[in-house]
Specification:
93 residues; two-stranded parallel sheet; 2 domains; alpha+beta; 6 strands
């Protein structure tokens, strides 16, 4: 069923890293780069430090009309997140 939504990933790594990652693991969606964590700071997204680098914690946001309609956090287990988001989206149809 077509839901009429667009999917993006957001990461704190730079664009070159994201492009290589997306190609290597064959992501079916674009990954947006936020190396300065501007979006993360603006939305108060959770982050963590690893190896001296600040990274975004895994979460899913549903944005409708320029506003965050739903936040899925924490994402656990990670392999069930897409199904949980789809279930939530189907409720709105």
């Amino acid at each position: 069923m077509e839901l009429g939504v667009r999917v993006y990933g957001v990461s704190g790594q730079d664009s070159a890293y994201q492009k290589e990652l997306a190609e290597r693991i064959r992501l079916p969606y674009e990954v947006l780069s936020d190396p300065d964590l501007v979006l993360a700071q603006a939305l108060a997204l959770p982050t963590f430090a690893f190896g001296g680098v600040r990274l975004l914690k895994r979460l899913s946001l549903v944005v409708e009309g320029g506003r965050v309609a739903k936040v899925f956090y924490p994402v656990f287990p990670p392999d069930e997140d897409a199904g949980q988001v789809l279930h939530w989206l189907h409720r709105g149809i």
